[in-house]
Amino acid sequence: MTTTARLPKPNSEEWAWQLRAACRDLRTAHFFHPENERGGKRVERERRAKRVCRRCPVIAQCREHALRTREPYGVWGGLGEQERRGLLGGRAAR
Ligand code: SF4
């Protein structure tokens, strides 16, 4: 079950960086996989999403938000789900 308890409170200072996001006008389907998406389709969709992230002016803020709140799904800050899990595992080990 998804919970929002891990997310920052709804004040504008916590979320203002999203107003400058390169993905702001794109469909969320570019960044979040549909149910049962696997293999090459998933790899290609993530590759396209990460291409958008590379030119995003708030990639650092987005990545830090995703790691801090342990976003479980989608591409955030140029990182996919497994990449974030790997980084969080490394942080926990230190
Ligand atoms: S880094 Fe990627 S996911 Fe994050 S706000 Fe920018 S474009 Fe969107």
UniProtKB/TrEMBL annotation:
The keyword Cell cycle does not apply. [4Fe-4S] cluster binds at residues 23, 53, 56, 62. Keywords: 4Fe-4S, Cytoplasm, Disulfide bond, DNA-binding, Iron, Iron-sulfur, Metal-binding, Transcription, Transcription regulation. Coiled coil: none annotated. The Fe-S cluster can be nitrosylated by nitric oxide (NO). Upon Fe-S cluster removal intramolecular disulfide bonds are formed. Its cofactor is [4Fe-4S] cluster. The keyword 4Fe-4S applies. InterPro entries: 4FE4S_WBL (IPR034768), Whib (IPR003482). It is found in: Cytoplasm. Its main location: cytoplasm. Residues 22-86 form the 4Fe-4S Wbl-type domain. Binds 1 [4Fe-4S] cluster per subunit. Following nitrosylation of the [4Fe-4S] cluster binds 1 [4Fe-8(NO)] cluster per subunit. Belongs to the WhiB family. Acts as a transcriptional regulator. Probably redox-responsive. The apo- but not holo-form probably binds DNA. PANTHER family: TRANSCRIPTIONAL REGULATOR WHID (PTHR38839:SF5), TRANSCRIPTIONAL REGULATOR WHID-RELATED (PTHR38839). This is Transcriptional regulator WhiB. It comes from Saccharopolyspora griseoalba.
